[in-house]
Amino acid sequence: MLDIIPLNSQTLSAMKPIYDDFRKVAVQDYGFPEQPLDFNGLMQTHQMGLVNLYGIYEYPEQRWVGFMMYNREAHGTLDVKVVYLDDSISTKSALDSLFNRFLEDAKGWDDWSVASYPMLGPRQFEYIRYMTWPGFTPVGQAVVRFDLQDVLSQAIFEGLKLDPLPEGYHMTTYMPAYERDVTLALAEAFESSVDALWDPRFRSLDGMKECMQFVQSGAYGLFYPNATAVLLNPDKKAVGACLLNVVSPTEANIPMIGLLKSERGKKLGQHLLAHTVRQVINLKRSGQLPIKLVSATVATGNLSAVRMYRHIGFQEAFWYPHLFQERNRVMSRRPGQWC
What we know:
Largest sheet: 11 strands, mixed
Strand content: 25-35%
CATH architecture of the largest domain: 3-Layer(aba) Sandwich
Shape: globular
CATH class of the largest domain: Alpha Beta
Number of helices: 12
Distance between the termini: 24 Å
CATH superfamily of the largest domain: Gcn5-related N-acetyltransferase (GNAT)
Order of helices and strands: EHHHEEEHEHEHEHHHEEEEEEHEHEH
Number of strands: 15
CATH topology of the largest domain: Aminopeptidase
Structural class: alpha+beta
């Protein structure tokens, strides 16, 4: 028998063994850029209200066999970060119990509009069989990587031939003076993207301003203006950008890349991506940026974007389903009901 328990400062302390098991596989199996916080760090983060957890307790064995870590984000996303289950328990029973409790509790919270779960981990293909029952919709996501030490990626990039930029257009790197126009371009690029399905910030210009602040805040690694590509039109207005953040000592990530709608269909995204990769390579060669990988996430259904990354030399590292469910659907379900 399984019991789903919202964890507090007293009950969390008993979770150390199962959390330590997760930490051992977080990088290799869950795609974390570096090992997550140790248990003391987790407890401090929980006490500060920055993360919430449910524990899965098994009777009569009297042991913890899993947990869910989630955030109630200020922008309205109920964001499931991790679900970790011990191999010894029934996956279906655990997920049924966990998400039934989670979604029933969520009905009493008024600070969210969409639930989101990027399903990472070695058992995702097993988990996904049960996750549409509670009403979640899956969207395929691929993590692509440019390995600066990979011979094939280097050869593709060094042999890259791009169409010339339109007359009067040129590439540069990010400066604060471009922020307003960059934000506008990214807002247009993301308002109809799959990301907007589970992150309300992508649905408006004000929301994109929040995203830009977050990217530059240090909460998501170190924002690198010198490797952030900006495309200027003949009027010196920024019409597109490819942002870059250093998220670990060896990895950088592209959190957003996009263009104004009026600039699409001209293969300008290739120039943005190539400029960022070229800047990273130059910074690495000069000793200023000792990273090994540049990563990005792209919807598997966005074939033009997938082709763009491949064209520059990125390779698909792995894929995962990103699940989401709107609040109104959760509110209409009965306890224990599967959609």
